[in-house]
Design brief:
- It is globular, with a radius of gyration of 17 Å.
- With about 120 residues, the protein is an alpha+beta fold.
- It has a 4-stranded antiparallel β-sheet with strand order 2-3-1-4, with helices on one face.
- It has 4 helices and 4 strands; from the N terminus they run βαβααβαβ.
Length: about 120
């Protein structure tokens, strides 16, 4: 069984290190796209006068961090724990603020993936 792993990396300066470590541990073929969170977009486009709840979001936003990276990869079921451990080794405990979010979905079909014989 395969899984689709998603990780939203807030600490974009850690991207190269994380991808290199994934590769060393057998997670290959990941795709990376740039992203911007909903709170950041709302904060940039609307003033606190228009949307008063934005002032409460300000404390969660790191003003130096404009974007995030969304990393996704199809992995084997047995790689999931190792992938999360790798992420936490590089960025820190995911239960702490600003270290990102990881989640996965089961994948019931793939075609065109390189079979590594495992």
């Amino acid at each position: 069984m395969m899984r689709l792993l998603f990780y939203i990396l807030n600490k974009t300066e850690k991207l190269d290190l994380l991808l290199a470590e994934f590769s060393k541990r057998g997670i290959q073929g990941a795709t990376v796209i740039e992203g911007k969170g909903m709170a950041r977009i709302l904060f940039e486009k609307h003033g606190e006068d228009e949307m008063p709840f934005l002032s409460s979001l300000r404390k969660f936003l790191n003003p130096e961090r404009e974007n995030s990276n969304i990393i996704f990869a199809v992995i084997r079921n047995e790689q999931l724990s190792m992938a999360v451990e790798t992420i936490e080794e590089i960025v820190g405990d995911l239960s702490k603020s600003n270290n990102g979010v990881v989640f996965s979905f089961p994948v019931d079909f793939t075609k065109g993936m390189i079979d590594d014989g495992k």
